[in-house]
Amino acid sequence: QVQLVESGGGLVQAGGSVRLSCAASGRTVSTHYMGWFRQAPGKELELVASISASGRTPYYGTLVRGRFTISRDNSKNTVYLQMNMLEPEDTAVYYCAAGGDSGVGTRRGEFDYWGKGTQVTVSS
Question: What is the spatial distance between Cα 72 and Cα 31, in angstroms, rounded to a whole number?
Fold first, then answer.
């Protein structure tokens, strides 16, 4: 089993930046692709970004491309999401997820383990 705990969320003004962290425990996730999803009130869960096990292949959702950066430190069993130029539309609960050991997942069903989420609120 893998346990994922997100941190770093909070209230930020539009145009600001936030860095989310996802710490994994239970077993190493260094051989798993990882992802960040978000869900805004009344909306469906959507992929924000995902990254291959090696960290060399990131994937970004259209709405965040160019503003957000996903990275990982396998020595710390941790994945990060750097969010810049935040907009009120980025307000959501952000979830960390761990997937398989091949390629990089881009859909919800491709991820097996999920954190409980962290709230990010962007004020205008």
Answer: 12
Sign of torsion, CA 14 15 16 22?
A: positive
**Residue matched to tokens 């869960």:** 45
Length of the chain: 124
- Taking the C-alpha atoms of residue 94 and residue 89, their distance in angstroms, rounded to an integer, is 13
C-alpha angle 23-107-1 in degrees, rounded to nearest 5: 40
Rg of the chain on CA atoms, in Å: 13
**Strand 118-123 relative to strand 111-114: parallel, antiparallel, unpaired?**
unpaired
63-79 pLDDT, tens per residue? Answer: 999 999 999 999 999 99
Q: What are phi and psi of 110, to 5 degrees?
A: -90, 0
Please tell me the distance from the alpha carbon of residue 63 to that of residue 61, in angstroms, as a whole number: 6
